[in-house]
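Support request, please re-run this one:
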Amino acid sequence: MDAVQETPLRILAIAPYEAMKDALRQAAEAYPTLRLDAFTGDLQEGVEIVRQVDAMDYDAILSRGGTAELIRPVTDLPVVEIPVSVYDVLRTIKLSENYTDQCAIVGFPGVTENAHILCNLLRKEIPIQTVKDSQSAERTLEELNSRGIHTVICDMVTHRIARSKGLNALLITSGESSLHQALQDAMEQGATFRRVRSENLILRSIVSQDSRLSVVFDENQDVVFSSGPNVTQEAIALMRKKIPSLRNEEEILSYHQVGSTLHTITAASFHAHGKRYALFRDQPGQISLRSSRPGIRANDQAECEHLFMGSFFSVSGSLGELEQRLTPLAASRQPVMIVGEEGTGKEQIARVLYLRSPYKNHPLVTVDAARLNDKTWDFLLENPGSPLAGHGTAVFFQHLEEAPAQHQQTLLSLIEDTGLERRLWLLFSCDLKEHMPMHDFFRELSLRQSPMTLHLPTLRSRRDEIPALASLYLGSLNVELNKQVAGFDPGALEMLIRYDWPGNYTQFKHVLHELAVLTNGLYISNVDVADLLAHERRQYRLPLDAAEAPSFAGLTLAEINQRVVRQALAQNNGNQSLTARQLDISRTTLWRMLNTAEGFQKKKEE
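Re-run finished. Output below.
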């Protein structure tokens, strides 16, 4: 057997989202004769990755759905599609059951074919729409929205478009068995392709049309390729220092700052013609670091979209009844006061208003009065370079109740004396607890400026929506954390509904994230919810509501022991030695009690 046949199979994987890339790498560890290079890219992004790397140095390409279809015309390599199994579709439908509104299934044929089979077997009346590209996906979503269907179960292409249109979207993820099947198919086809391939092609067209800075080094650390004219010697020297860290074909990630912008550098090694090369890519950060004055920052339209898309409001579609008021307020050009409790998302709502306003082509300036020092206040109120001296921009004021009284009065006078509300679009946020009076400054501001007022609802006022919000956010966490959580044990969701949520959506997002991290099975347990809410009550100094605590009915002895141990651990801030002494047991017994219950739980799930 010659040297080419003895080398491991090389597979290039283009994953539609980051968590699948990590899952593919983990699954590939089970195949010692396989070397997998995984990247994240959807549709045209995936096509560009294939064009930019030395694709001919691989034996096969792995991708999914519409991205796989777009890649096939641009390469001679076999393209193996990562399947979406019936079980993958079933798991996502199960996750959507807490959402009361009608939903539809939208995706490429690999998704909808299994969806038809599954809905026929389950006798479920769910509209199923097949799309062939992003344009048809956009038209389909608009048509569903016009019919009053605002929730979709979908693939990655449709998921991104649905999120941009404000629709609720649950992404169908490929499970572990689907990934292993795809890897085995890719290895089989790759081995066949290698046998018939007569020669290796040289490295070509790496990131030739990519906006990112890319540099390729050979084994002597000499530059053999660079993507643009702005490759500085400083950047070359920085990359060269990291070449020794590239081992075992693993990608590394690092950061460096150039001026006011944070750059992300990814690096990985690859082989061509038996030689080893190092590929570096430099991506400028999406979030600017340009503000040099504490408490004042400016974000452009792209940055605000990026920040909002990662928020709980975007992920869960939790704007609710606010949706009807936001667009008219954004078009009014009148000052707006956003009123709500802690954690109700006042800053994210300000971003939504900005993104829907005529001011979105200019930066959104945020002034956080809690972080301003006297020098910055002087700049803001008196300097000709202050954002308050400009025209045609949106300015969002936070935490003005924490500003010194003299600065509050100076700001009010500046607004009145200079006609500030005619030159700028003014947004204010006001922290206001339920049944508490408004701060004196905001009462005076309301009397003197008469801003439009937008009251944000608390989470406890929307208890009936908590199951739907939880399901939608868990769907996003499954993608982010590479999890397959399908829902809650009986009683766990009821505890979340009954809890008061003093931290509102911010606290809710934190709790769900922690529960998803802790959960190893398909369902979040009563014990985990009870323990975490008990901890949250202590953090917010709330009394323990006995009605919310689950009973021991239906629990095994090991599960009861585990709950007692977890509560003791929480009381002792995770100190196992102190907990063991308190319970009068050894640390070994403590460890065994925790892990025995987890083993029982896994067997029950199996």
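The first helix runs from residue 3 to 6. The chain has four domains: 86-173, 207-285, 296-457, 464-605.
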